Amino acid sequence: MASTTTSPPAGVQVSHPVRRAKRAPALRRMRLRRALPGYLMLLPFAALFAGFLVWPLLNSLYFAFTNYNGVKPPTLVGFDNFQRLWFEDERFRTALVNSFAYVAATVTLTTVLALALAVAFHGTSWRDRIMRTLFFLPAVTSTIAVALIWRWIFTVEDFGLANTVIGWVGVEPVQWLATPSLTIPILVVMAVWGGCGYGMVIFVAGLNAIPEEHYESARLDGANAWQQFWYITLPQLKPVTTYVVITSLISAFQVFEAVYIVFRGVSSVGGVQDSGLMLVPYLYDMGFTKFQLGYASAIAWSLFIVIFVVSMIQLRVTRALREL
Amino acid sequence: MRTRLAVAAAAITALVAGCTTSGGGDEPAQEAEGPASLTFWNTGSDEHAAALQVVADIYKQSHPDVTIKVQALSWDDGHAKVLTAATSRTGPDIISGGMSWGIEFGELGGMIDLNAQDIGSIKSQTRPEVLKAITSPSGAVYGVSFDNAFYLLFYRPDLLQKAGLSGPPKTWEELTAAITKLKAAGVKTPLVENWNTFEWLPWFNWLKQAGGSLYADDCSKATIDSDPAVLATATWAKQFREHGVPKAATDSAAGLANGEVAMAIDGSWVANAIDTTHPQLKGKWQVAALPTGPAGPGTFVGGRIVGVMAYTKYPKAATEFIKWLYTDEAIQLLQKEVYNKSGELWLSPRADQIDTLTTTDNVKQTLKTTMETVSGPPNCKGWEVSQAEVTKKLQSVVNDNVDPKQALGEAATIMNNNLK
């Protein structure tokens, strides 16, 4: 019987694969020994990540295709929740429109204001440091506490700061929180005030990373301050701007506390005539007030799709602009 | 690579397939052996929970085998927390909460039907209107009335007198006239309306006073678009549009104290709180029943229910404690403790206990009179889901000048759809 094994031709480096195969388990053991402490150190985080993020996410994906009230076992309903949500639910449409209006205004204003503040206060002087700290303070303050203070500011009663201020110039008191046309503007003001400090810090880091030589060359070429900003600062800040816009966009889509604390009524979480109803408050309302947890999960996954699509569009647009 | 993908896909499939809930037990609760240790989530303030704990400790003296620990649950997130408890089947044995919570959580399978625990004595001591509101369409009672609250008219007699009024308004017409006179006399905001301002709850008072209702008695259809309801809505809207009643909640006690508010339609619990928060106002305010409409008097009755969670190991012990809460001893203790700890009025569902409240004769008499005219929230299917839409339609009458008939017609359509 002919042997199936063939001898290597003379002169050829013998048994390279064979030796490697023999060494493989030893290598694997060595690599494992080397990597084991790292994996062990990762384990607590991985366990928490799996338990508190991956598992709930998978659960919510499953519930999105079920009819589930939180107590009785869920029953599969296929795509019914998504069909009802996207094609029949007027409140979802209201929440979607409100969310887009809020996001557009908030992201634009936050980014512009954050950039302006960063340009104004990016130095190392005490004045700049103090101003940066002041503008950053809202970002490290409890959102609940901030929302409560805004609620007081816009209250109809005498201690309402907004009415007091407009009263100084003879304007009649306004029922800020009960006037639907003012709801989104108030929420935008709150978000911009609370978010521009964080954006400013990111922009300051970006500004300080721009080589000073660029500006020196530009000055030698006779560029004025505006030209330096337009042709050096802005283009150099594109990656930072993209980051600020994307993170502001995601957090704006996920707004909850401001609506819940400032505008919530007993009958509706979205304020007077649902004027402040956004996607996450609506999700909360359907899940925890109306016990439609399957439907609320469908809203959550729809929100994920919306944010994903908008972020992708934004990234593509940024890339296209960079290539111009 | 393919193997890894296949393993990952299989793992995800297995995880998703395994995503079953721990809830879902429809099996009847069985009483566990031995001493009962009960947890009571009381929706309300810390002071209320502390008052209830005193009462629970006194209960233990006559029931040494039952220990009750009372924990305060805030109104803001109480509903979500009870839902979480019902879902995970862990948490309190007894809960108190909004009047509709019993039916809501009970229909989900989260609370037990107390009818199985012989609550005849409690039912006989509960006003029929309240009993109707807490009884599910199937006849189940998942939570019995724990305390009651209804709307009253608080006012400053001196301000009314200054405006040339001899007393509080007794009818809608007198209310309108009083607002006009008070405004002319320089009162900044003659009337405020609290307790769910600019929502369906205070509107419900007007509906009852006009002779309307939300649903037919047998819950077969919505009747919110009837002529009395249209009249009630138009009149309710007029107070915001023409008479300067704020659409946002205000601190009525502070307004009465500083003289900027002359009349306040507010919850009955405010009665004693006025003196506590504004001692300078003691003896300077009075209370009256709400003005009557074309069909007579009427006010919404709310308050809390108390019930037993479905997963408790001690359904009998928990129900026995709830039954004891209806005794003279427990009621008078709660009245005293709530008053001592928070200065508020605790109103038992038992009208015969009003006389033992620590309050003025004027308040006692008004409470008694008003209690005769109360109506609870509807117990018809779909009301919980409909109320946000109904509120929006009502608000559109005020904000967008929508015709009340049209707004209520749209509300009726929504309510009828949710009845199915």
From TrEMBL, chain A:
Any GO BP: transmembrane transport
Subcellular locations according to the entry: Cell membrane
Domain of life per record: Bacteria
Transmembrane segments: 38-58, 100-121, 133-153, 184-210, 240-263, 293-315
Membrane topology according to the record: Multi-pass membrane protein
SUPFAM superfamilies, A to Z: MalF N-terminal region-like, MetI-like
Stretches assigned to the ABC transmembrane type-1 domain: 96-314
Family: Belongs to the binding-protein-dependent transport system permease family.
Record's protein name: ABC transporter permease
Source organism of this protein record: Phytohabitans flavus
Species classification: Bacteria, Bacillati, Actinomycetota, Actinomycetes, Micromonosporales
TrEMBL record, chain B:
Family matches, as Pfam families: SBP_bac_1
Superkingdom of this protein's organism: Bacteria
PROSITE patterns, A to Z: PROKAR_LIPOPROTEIN
Alphabetical list of SUPFAM superfamilies matching this protein: Periplasmic binding protein-like II
Coiled-coil ranges per UniProt: none
Protein name as catalogued: Sugar ABC transporter substrate-binding protein
